[in-house]
Amino acid sequence: MYNAKAYATLTPASRLAPFDLQRRDPGAHDVQIQILYCGICHTDVHIARNEWQGTTYPCVPGHEIVGRVVKAGVHVTKFQEGDLVGVGCMVDSCRACENCREDLEQFCVNGPTFTYNSSDKHNGGITYGGYSDSVVVDEAFVLRVPKHLNLSASAPLLCAGITTYSPLRHYRVGPGQKVGVVGLGGLGHMGVKIAKALGARVVVFTTSANKVEDALRLGADEVVISRNEAEMKQHLNSFHFILDTVAARHDINAYLVLLKRDGTLTQVGLPAEPLAVQVGSLIFGRRNFSGSLIGGIKETQEMLDFCGEHNLTSDVELIPIQQINEAYERLLKSDVKYRFVIDIASLGTPAAVRA
Ligand code: NAP
Ligand code: ZN
Ligand code: ZN
Known about the structure:
Helix 4 packs across helix 5 (186-197) and helix 4 (160-170) packs across helix 10. The chain has 12 helices and 17 strands. The radius of gyration is 20 Å and the shape is globular. By secondary structure, the protein is α/β, with parallel strands linked by helices. The chain has helices at 42-48, 98-101, 151-154, 160-170, 186-197, 212-218, 229-233, 253-256, 279-283, 297-310, 324-332, 351-354; strands at residues 2-8, 17-23, 30-39, 65-72, 84-87, 90-92, 113-114, 134-138, 143-144, 178-182, 201-206, 222-225, 239-244, 259-267, 288-291, 316-320, 339-343. Strands 3, 4, 5, 8, 9, 16 and 17 form a 7-stranded mixed sheet that branches. One zinc ion binds at residues 41, 43, 63, 89, 159.
């Protein structure tokens, strides 16, 4: 075991604060990663504040991790010291169930081991995430980050990127289709970039009038202020696919009726409260309402390679970790352009170790 620095919260209502933890020494199949950047996902806020229930404290969030391999176990084949790598929402799974064998570890029937707030089979207790200067992960759950991409702007691909890429691919979004993205936050802005790169016509739905110009710059063909009913009505029965990234309670029926016959609305935003569905909106038009959870490891690598080819990264606000509590408050006000990323050097790791 060795010591690592981190930021943790100790109760649902506390501020995140410095916290020391112990990581395992890398085993034969593990890599030890010096974390350089970690994105702040809205899920971090939900879990740090126990909004979905089931949070164990102390809680060290963070699942958009990029960094450098500093040690590789003797049986590690994919990585070597010095490689730039990423870790997303999962660090392990049973690898034997039907879903794991189909490269869908996120749906592991025995429960994937999430990067934080999951049982830690190595150390006991729970897993601790990327608001930390170091992590040890089995190489099977470590990703290659394209070298030419800006590293801090690549961190959000590990969750926001794969969470939007996976449903867009699953529902075969492409040229000739009209695709909606609801909510222009961390997930939403990656959804716009990826749907556009896949060749779709993209319409952004936002509650924030001040994001219209940005949405167009990010690649949207059109922007709708979702609180404006008349604007919404112009799009009735016209979408092949809509991706909903909203983290709070909202009227889902206003979007279901915008789908064409047989169209699909996929929910990736996960509000703490239930959403009320007007079943009629589904029946008339044989429309589909579905959900999607991140993506498997194989698909996450495919997404990173796709982003490498298309030069896609996140628009980020880089912050020192000392500003994390203010960043959470701004996230709750939809005030981020468009993903906060923590510069882990601010944790104060000695420069000699960082080099
Ligand atoms: P975010 O950056 O806060 O973005 C959410 C966006 O939703 C906001 O920017 C805002 O966009 C819109 N919004 C917020 N409150 C709203 C309200 N009351 N009514 C309508 N729109 C509202 O969050 P994120 O990191 O993208 O995460 C979004 C959600 O996805 C969270 O619930 C998170 O837990 C979940 N998530 C799910 C998965 C998965 O695998 N399914 C993975 C990661 C995250 P506008 O200002 O444009 O309206
Ligand atoms: Zn996330
Ligand atoms: Zn499994």
